[in-house]
Amino acid sequence: MKVIKKTIVIALILLLSFSLSAVSFSKSLLNVYSDSHLISNSGNRGYLGGFFPLEADYVYKVTPSKAMTDNGISVNLNLSSGIKERLLKVSPESGEILSRGRKESMYQVHYIYADIDISKAIIEEPYMSEDILALHFSFLADYENSYERFDWLSNPINNNGVFSEFNTLSNTFEEKYNSYSYVPELGGNRRVKNTGFGVGVVFNFKEEKEMTKDGIWGSLKGNYMPSWMPFNDKKGSDYFSINLNAGFAMTLLEISQMSFGPSRGLDALSIYVETEFDFVGAWGKNIPQMAVERRIWGSFVPSSHMIATNTTALVIKGYQIYKDLYPSVSVFSDMAFAFGGGINGAEGGTGFIGSLGARIDFNIFSMFSLYGEIGYVYKDLYDYNPGLRYALGAKVRI
Amino acid sequence: MPKNIKILATLLVVLILIIQGATAADDTFKESITGSSGGLSIGEGVFPFSLSWSKNKDITLLDEDEFDKAHLVFSFSSSVTRDRDYGYDLKTGSPSWDKQDASSWTDNNDAYYFKPSASISISLSQKFEKWTLKGSLNTKYSHLMEDLVSTVPSSLYFVNSDGSLKYNDKDAVAAYPWLYGERNNFTTSLGFTLSRSYIVEGLDSMNVSVGVEMGPWWMLNSISNGNRLSDYYRISGTAGESVKIKDTQQSINLRWLNITASHSNSFSYTFGKIVPKEKLNSNRLKGVISDTLSLSFAGPQLYDASTSISASISLNNSLYFGQVANMKNSGFYYSYVSYLSLSGNLNLFGLISFSVTGTRYLSQGLGSSNALWSASGEVYMSINL
Fold first, then answer.
1. Which of A129, B90, B187, B378 has the maximal Cβ count within 10 Å?
2. Domain range holding B120?
3. Are B153 and A173 a contacting pair at CB < 8 A?
4. Tell me, what CATH number does B137's domain have?
């Protein structure tokens, strides 16, 4: 505890120094997001607690004074915290792929991710909300606590734990694994912190409105999380990674309602298509799961050294009943290709997974949405069976 | 219809009605991450974060020339915390200070449970000539689980080592019905408050309020976990006065020092068979009359208005009385509790605050086994919009 408290104190002093370096101080909230499946077999969120919005993701942003940004340089402190579920894909002890059911391999992660991001605009336009092209340098800090999943916590005697199991003879909980060599961050108290640096270039030429989306965007970033950083503990990271992201969207059709009276400015229908490619490659002695954590709809991607994913969707929105109040329908394809072998020497290998599906969504004032999803996972992870997946859910977004 | 769907349908109807009423109104938002040396601690268990959000709107209910607009507030909040309930006698429901039969005692005094919870509420207030009337409808959901850091079977809160539930006996007196069954707990309540401010020479403020509140079984308080989770009616009242002793400014329009003396009295009594957790006091007696005298120091604002030091000292005297809530055949008890508390707070940029509180009990009442001294510190981080 003492080490953690000392770390917190140092982190707060750094945060304070950072804050005092600003001439003025402002903050804004980027996103608060909660997504719960009410009824689901799609696996990504269904086990987290019924309809209660436990999986929340908060992202907020603190922006120092523009006195520091006269030359197109801006400094942001980005923080996010929340709870998410993760799949234990390989045995931490042997590195072999786990063949037990998906539910028995899910655990929950409580996290705080932070970065101090310094960016320099290369190309900027006053009418764009973001820089068209910018260079970024970041100081990164991650903190994670891992626990058994929620339904295990409801009755740990009658459920199988991911990390421990109840021994009826000795009347104790016993650790399932003697070592966590292949998933180092889960060793000991399953608490891990990592720090490091990131550099990158971000391109953004996109216009996203309520009913339409057009443009192209992309980024190339490199992260270096070395073991010698002062905050990294023994289980912490020692790796570098490259992240490449590129996307394209185009509005195919937009039909306005009669442009007078209460429906002025509203759309009857809009259709757009969007596609996004993502690549991550990570190499090093100790790569945490978070570095190569990728999902497709209805399934999970193996934690390999390199992962390429693509998601493509055709989105139909309308009829717009009121501003921010409309139904939408979309069809989508998710694909992932993992290659280069499993991280930390574990099994994982080369593999392709993919799903096709459709989603119907009712957006209520851009704060709540009710949705139904159905899809077919035609190629799944390891020996999980491909199949039909569905989910009915509710999202809260503030 | 499944219980979850019933609860969800209720929430959605409330939600949609409220959103319709509150569209295009102002938002307030608060998110926090808390670490503290007592109870909750960063790194020891969950990150104890909470989120609250509200939407406000002024609406016209009465003649605009004669009355102010009514104020509608819709709010949502959620939190993930650790919590506890002290042991009690399963045969009688008697509390820890009245331990009668050790064999039927649930001894959870040192244990915590894990509690994700969420609430949705709507309130409407209308100012009349002198009084303001406020009505509110509150819903709350929580799902109790074993503590994240429990790894010893004997320390489990809800489950015996043979897998059966500790709180599942239909014949037992459920002093804490929210601990029973699958612990899916949904409750609703309705409350009304009348409040008024007086202008009194020599005082800076004087406020009075009276209220009634109810959470009867028929307001969906029996649908979620197999037990009635709430069945109560409550009356309450407060009166408070304050006077500024000193108020000085720095030359740059920031506060230097503000000293305020304040005094308040309050009372409440809860009738009914089942009093929910948030309405129980520590010794579970149904009535309380209290008196609080405090001196607050708001120190210099250092950097901007949101960076400041503050401190307070207060003396609280409370008389608890009446029957024990959620107990079978309870007698009538009294308990006098008196304590002095000191607290200090440092707030930086409205983003991070450090606080420390020390309490010295002068009279402990029925909970006399508690320590005379207690102290706690907290680091609190919040984002407000």
1. B187
2. 3-384
3. yes
4. 2.40.160
